[in-house]
Write a structure and sequence with these properties.
193 residues; mainly alpha; Tetracycline Repressor, domain 2; 74% helix; 0% strand; elongated
Length: 193
């Protein structure tokens, strides 16, 4: 499903395309999924589960919020760059299709927002309530732009900018810049310490 959506877009991808790409018969597909929307939802659940595993690999309850943010962004962008079709499905097709896939996308985004809101602990007074939502929307828009431009495999190059956008409302320009420079150093490492 992810490959078909990346090649054609969700609307144009047909069940027959998914069957041909996966090597299963239409009958087998229909035993598992009622329609392509249900398949898309299952694919999105799989993608999100793999993305959380990638984040768990770099996560630690002992890491300060800023370090966890930097390492998490690098790991997530690395995962998406390594799984380009998943990136397209998760950030473009799932949001456009609505249904189960859209709900999974919104749930994952809510979890990311919850994490970002923890940055408020280090913020100066007066940071707007919508700061995390705006920062995440900007980061998502940047990632979508790269995917649509055919640069999903280079999403890691956006780690410094995305870290900066997510950190600056809470940590200020100087500390967000320091984190962004750290992300630039770490974005090509296979293991983030």
């Amino acid at each position: 499903m992810a490959e078909c959506c990346a090649a054609k877009g969700y609307e144009a991808a047909a069940v027959d395309d998914v069957c041909a790409a996966s090597g299963v018969s239409r009958e087998s597909f229909e035993r598992v999924f009622a329609d392509k929307g249900e398949c898309l939802g299952a694919a999105m659940e799989s993608i999100v589960a793999e993305a959380w595993r990638a984040l768990d690999e770099v996560g630690s309850p002992d890491k300060p919020w800023a370090t966890a943010l930097r390492d998490g962004v690098v790991a997530l962008l690395r995962f998406l760059a390594d799984h380009r079709a998943f990136a397209h499905l998760a950030l473009i097709d799932a949001t456009a299709s609505g249904g189960r896939a859209g709900a999974v996308h919104e749930s994952a985004k809510a979890a990311l927002l919850d994490f970002l809101e923890r940055g408020r602990e280090w913020a100066e007074p007066g940071v707007p309530v919508v700061a995390a939502r705006g920062a995440l929307a900007g980061a998502e828009a940047l990632a979508v732009r790269e995917i649509l431009a055919g640069r999903a495999g280079e999403l890691g190059e956006q780690a410094p900018a995305i870290v900066y956008m997510l950190a600056v409302p809470f940590l200020g320009v100087g500390e967000a810049g320091r984190l962004a420079r750290g992300a630039a150093r770490r974005r090509n490492l296979r293991a983030v310490a």
